[in-house]
Amino acid sequence: MDDLRQKYLEAVAAATDEATLEDLRVAAVGKKGEISLKMRELGKMTPEERQVAGPALNALKDEVNSALAAKKEALGDAALDARLSEEWLDVTLPARGRPEGTIHPVSQVTEEVIAIFADMGFSVAEGPQIENDFYNFDALNIPPHHPARQEFDTFYMHRDEGDNRPPHVLRTHTSPVQIRAMEKTGAPIRVIAPGRVYRSDYDQTHTPMFHQIEGMAIGEDISMANLKWVLEEFFAAFFEIDGIKTRFRASHFPFTEPSAEVDIQCSWVDGQLRIGEGDGWMEVLGSGMMHPKVLQAGGVDPEKYQGFAFGMGIDRIAMLKYGIPDLRAFFDSDLRWLRHYGFSALDVPTLARGLSK
Ligand code: PHE
User: Whose CA is nearest to atom 9 of ligand 1?
Assistant: First the structure.
């Protein structure tokens, strides 16, 4: 028995990996291991012999088992030590770079526009992009079959045959929010409504989805003069050009009377657009005094109240402010071009400077 003891304790001490330890365990105390076989022989012994051999064998088995366990733990610690000394992190290495995101110019410009109008007491209103044709057309004094409906290149939502609900459209302008805002808060009211609008049109200055900002002010004595002042204040702040010249051209919209399209002064120098100088004009919005029928459709009494409204292309004024030649660049292309145009996230709101002058 002493031979067995020496044999296994030495072998365990010499083992250098867990597989060897497992082989030793099977050979010594496994089902057919040497020590196990010896224990089976106990039955054939005389009681006196057994009294000596039994406890000795049990002690030997325990001793081998604990030697195996101790060695296994020691091997594990050694392996961990080895890994710890080989693998290490250089925490002084520079971190892997992450591409920096920037706010989309349309979002940035929208924020700028909102802040300027907020300073003039306008609050923000919203409406759905999938609009029914009552809000998009009828309530705005564009009855069915009116030729103005065609001017809008409308996207109509699909209707199954036999589905007789009123047609829904992708709103062609933000003007339906005029009606929704009047319904919600009545008069007097001063709101702007930024958002996406859709028309089936695509070229250098038109994309099927674009952004507008609607403005509306209703009161007992709101006039065209207020419209002109508000817009001139806005352009001066937005383009950061004091006294920027605007031109109001008589126009026609079914929902305003009188109506005006508004241009701002600009020039082209070497293919570069310059705002606020020269003798060219760039159209930026449609506007006018709200038609009495529109006030009525919104539940506002046209005998008591009057108001102005305007609708401006956000993408268009962003192009002008930042000198971006092709509207499609906003939505089609890799936004790395933004850097080229000097866009940074809303860092110093340019409008705050414009207004404090
Ligand atoms: N809704 C008009 C358009 O999209 C713009 C507009 C708005 C004109 C409000 C007058 C008053 O062209």
Answer: 310
Query: 10 Å Cβ neighbour count for 59?
Result: 12
Taking the C-alpha atoms of residue 308 and residue 227, their distance in angstroms, rounded to an integer, is 6
The three-state DSSP-derived secondary structure of 232-299 is HHHHHHHHCCCCCCEEEEEEEECCEEEEEEEEEEEEEECCEEEECCCCEEEEEEEEEEECHHHHHHCC
Region of poorest pLDDT, from 127-131, 191-195, 266-270, 271-275: 271-275
Q: What is the position in ligand 1's atom list of the atom closest to the CA of 216?
A: 9
What spacing in Å lies between the alpha carbon of 236 and ligand 1's midpoint?
21
The atom of ligand 1 lying closest to the CA of 140 is 1
The share of the chain scoring above pLDDT 70, in percent, equals 90
Torsion of CA 283, 289, 295, 296, to 10 degrees: -120
**Helix, coil or strand: residue 58:** helix
Exposed / middle / buried, residue 90 (Cβ in 10 Å: 0-12, 13-18, 19+): exposed
Residue 256 CB-half CA count within 13 A: 26
Torsion angle of C-alpha atoms 335, 314, 214, 230, degrees rounded to 10: 140
The torsion of the CA quartet 184, 187, 189, 191, rounded to 10 degrees, works out to 40
pTM flag (> 0.70): no
Task: Tell me the CA–centroid distance for residue 286 and ligand 1, in Å.
Answer: 5
Give distance in angstroms: CA of 196 to centre of ligand 1. 14
Instruction: Give the residues surrounding ligand 1 with Cβ less than 6 Å away.
Output: 173, 175, 253, 256, 286-288, 309-311
